[in-house]
Structures are given as structure tokens and as C-alpha cells.
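Why do we bother with holo predictions? Because pocket geometry can differ from the apo form. Keep that in mind while you read this record for heme C.
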Amino acid sequence: MFRVLQLSRRALPLLFLLGPIHLVAQFASPVPNPASADRGDAIYAKSCAKCHGDDARGTATAPDLLRSLAVLHDRLNSLHGKELAPILAAKPVHGLSFSDAEILDISQSLTRSVNKILRTGYSNQPTDLLKGDKTAGEAYFNGAGGCNKCHSTTGDLAHVSKKYDVATLQQKFLFPNSGVRGVRTAAAPVVKKTQVTVTPAGKPAISGELVRMDDFTVTLRDATGQVRTWTILPTTKVKTDNPYAGHVALLEKYTDTDIYNLTAFLETLK
Ligand code: HEC
Ligand code: HEC
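The structure, written out:
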């Protein structure tokens, strides 16, 4: 059980590594099928709510599913429950057995619930987005969130709210490598690529743009444009530099209140 969870936890940072290359298009549109999500809601109410809470926000006995990396990963990658199934089957915590169709419905239900809190636009109530406290948001920006270590409200983020509508602004700080819907200015932001350096034992190091990496192989595009792949042996050194790592780490940290407060604060940067 624990191992399954750990694997899925590792998957999200990986997703961010890969995101700029081929997941950006999927990122913006995890639109659940309403009928399937409704069926999933019913399964959820019957089989999950007593531990994870009616709203999936967790209870004293089970974690918040809308902040679960496994659930977010499922949603972003449109996995339709493929990786949730082993988590639900694993004992002793779950030991639940579902058909593929039921797993799909559960995935669609959780995806819809996550969309609601992320306000990606599909079930958007724009007025809610600004319900946070901008002063608390500013304090978080310069304090607990550590945003000011990488950003400046008079520098790179000086006019950030002119660039995006509110929903996109929120999406942008939650997932800065996501797509660029709702951009207000002509200049669309550039999605930065993860860099990687591979050093096979006894060979020179080679660096380039990360194309793909899993537990077994790593592929990069070097400065000449050549694509090269290595098997990752225990002796192979692989070092990645994901420009969005700071944001990936923050996903585990924010509470809903922090997110609303930050959105309200960032919206003042006109
Ligand atoms: C008997 C209580 C219980 C029920 C019922 C239950 N869960 Fe869980 N679930 C847990 C506990 C406890 C954990 C944390 C286990 C751990 O971290 O090792 C967990 C973890 C999870 C995780 C991983 C969360 C993470 O950390 O990323 C997912 C996903 C999940 N549950 C989904 C579901 C779904 C969907 C259902 C209904 C089909 C369900 N669970 C039913 C208790 C329950
Ligand atoms: C470790 C460094 C780091 C930290 C900490 C960090 N960010 Fe970022 N942030 C980045 C990088 C890198 C980008 C991508 C910017 C780019 O491509 O120019 C980014 C992008 C953004 C964007 C989108 C900007 C745009 O113009 O598209 C927003 C908004 C943002 N961050 C807000 C925040 C907030 C709010 C926090 C704190 C909760 C935070 N960031 C913490 C590094 C960081």
C-alpha cells in the first residue's frame, strides 16, 4: 500500500518535468463527462465519503482527496483512474474492488471536484475567486509562501493581473507551466523547459533539454538538436533542473484559504 502511494506521489513532480513538452495541451482541458461524474458521485457517497468526507476534503481519519497528488495526477494526465485503481485495491486501508467502468466514474467525479476548487473555468463562479483577504495574501507572499524569494511585486509580477483574467491568474500560480487560456496581453508567456544532465559511469556529462524520463530511461535533446536516450543504471547520475520546482513544492503546502488570499493579492498587481 505504502509503496503504491509513494509511487503515485512521485508521479506528480515527474508530470511537471514532462509538462512543458507534451502535457500542456491536456492540462487545460480535463473536462469530465457529466453522466460519468454523476455516477462517480454516487459511488463516492457510498464508498468513500465516510472516511474522506462528504466534500472529499478529508477527515481526521483520511486525507483530503482534492489536494491528493494521486488525484491531481489522475486529473491532469487524463488517466481515468488507471493509477487510482491500485490505490483503491490495496489493503489494508482500502481493499475495495471496482470494475474499470466504476473506476472511470470515480476518476471523473474527483476530476470534477478538483475543477470546482481550481476554478479552471469549467464551473467557474468568478465572484468567488476574489473572496480572499488580500492583506493576508501579501503576508503569505512575503512570509510563509516564500514567493518573494523568486518574484518581486515591483519587478516580474508588477502588472501580472493585467496579463491574465482572474481564473487564469490563479491557475498560473498554482501551475505556472500550464496552458495560456485567458491571457489578456498579446505576449503569451513562454513555458520553460526542464534541463537535465546525464553522467553515465566513467563518461563525460551531457546536458540538454529533458524530453522524457521514467524510472528506467532518460531522454534529452542536446544543443545540436540531437535526441539521445540512456538506460538509468545505479551508477548513472541524472540531475534535473525544473524551473517550476518551487511551485510543485508549494502545491503540498497551500491551504484553500492561502490560495484565495494569494489570488486576491495578486489581482491588486495591476
Ligand atoms: C475506511 C476509510 C477509507 C475509505 C472508505 C476510503 N479511503 Fe481512501 N484513504 C484512506 C486512508 C486512511 C488513506 C491514507 C492512506 C495512506 O496514506 O497510507 C487513504 C488514501 C487515499 C488516496 C491516496 C491519497 C493520497 O495521499 O494521495 C486516495 C486517492 C483515496 N484514498 C481514494 C479513495 C476513494 C476514491 C475511496 C472510495 C472509493 C476511498 N479512498 C475510500 C481511508 C479510506
Ligand atoms: C523557487 C522559485 C519560485 C517560488 C518560491 C515561487 N515561484 Fe512563482 N514562478 C517561478 C517560476 C520559475 C515561474 C515561471 C516564470 C517564468 O516562466 O518567467 C513562476 C511563475 C509564477 C507566476 C506566473 C507569472 C506569469 O507572468 O506568467 C505567478 C503568478 C507566480 N509564479 C506566483 C507565485 C506565488 C504566488 C508564489 C508563492 C506562493 C510563487 N510564485 C513562488 C518561480 C517561483
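The CA atoms of residues 132 and 260 lie 4 Å apart.
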